[in-house]
Amino acid sequence: MPRTVVVGMSGGVDSSLAAWLLKQQGWNVIGLFMKNWEDDDDEQYCSSRQDLVDAAAAADVIGVDLQVVNFSAQYKERVFAEFLREYQAGRTPNPDVLCNSEIKFRAFLDHALALGAERIATGHYAQVREVGGEFQLLKAEDGTKDQSYFLYRLGQAQLSKTLFPVGGLYKRDVRRMARGIGLANHGKKDSTGICFIGERRFREFLARYLPPQPGEIRSLEGAVVGRHDGLMYHTIGQRKGLGIGGIAGRDEAGEHEAWYVAGKDVAANVLYVVQGHDHPALLAERLVAGDLSWVGGREPHTHWVYTARTRYRQPDAACEVERVDAAGCEIVFAEPQWAVTPGQSVVVYESRVCLGGGVIASPGGTAGARH
What we know:
Layout (H helix, E strand, L loop, with lengths): L3 E5 L4 H12 L3 E8 L12 H15 L2 E6 L1 H17 L6 H20 L4 E3 L4 E6 L2 E6 L16 H4 L2 E2 L7 H10 L21 H6 L7 E5 L4 E5 L30 E7 L4 E6 L7 E12 L10 E5 L7 E8 L4 E10 L6 E6 L2 E10 L9
Parallel strand pairs: 1-2, 1-4, 2-3, 4-7, 8-11
Antiparallel strand pairs: 5-6, 6-17, 8-9, 10-11, 12-15, 12-17, 13-14, 13-16, 14-15, 16-17
Helix pairs in contact: 1-2, 1-6, 3-4
């Protein structure tokens, strides 16, 4: 009897081709479309209805059954509630990381195993390999599409049950193959952002759940240069949307330079800004992270040379893990990193292997609890 795999089919080309590849390999494939958001779920803001149509069309071409499961309650409890708590605390969370660990590789995995599946599969650009009984999470072959950063919280129980069929392919080849087998979504645009926000303005969406809390915008020297509507609407390194332009000060050369968010004082409700992209206040040689998760279940070695990313779209940066314990870890970079942001994740790599990481607490300081 063929082994059963449940493929999370989102309606995109990657997960569609993943299902086709597994069927070609002899798996008994069941497609599963996950509905994770219901509030404001309409065509104006969220593409889930069209995505379901696209997933069903792909399943028909491939010749597999497609089921629909609603995880919106779990998503709201495990992902969205944490998303709001982090923003309210002045941090900038990454809901994609939580969605993967709590929904796609927890609720989805549990559902698939209950259906009798041996494995689950998704269209993520990442790879898994087994070495000496340990399952490693690897970067994708296509470095421009690698999504291992979003998957660093997966552990052995999840990786041992997971397949990433397109992780060894380049995106251009995925589209070419999809076109060749007649998948109508072969040219579908990659999804970006978060479904529950969709095409609307982020600030307007967040204001529905976290009302404005106006306060002062100050320079690091303490001068008041403007007003903000709420610290949660801003993130470290942000340039646009501050409403202060270059009119409130000049740099040392007398030039008007753009303002960037450099810090927040949540207790005083003050947003701190600096002028110039390369201002020293925007650069950090070290960071402290908490809420750690290591793929292999063990901590990385201290004072070994690794690489790390503090955001998704960022080249790997050479670093050392200077300290790691139950409270958190401290990472030191060979070169200063720009706009290290509390709430985002730092993910550590040893060559192609993703070791895991944690949630950034601060650029420097002492590790502690996130809240």
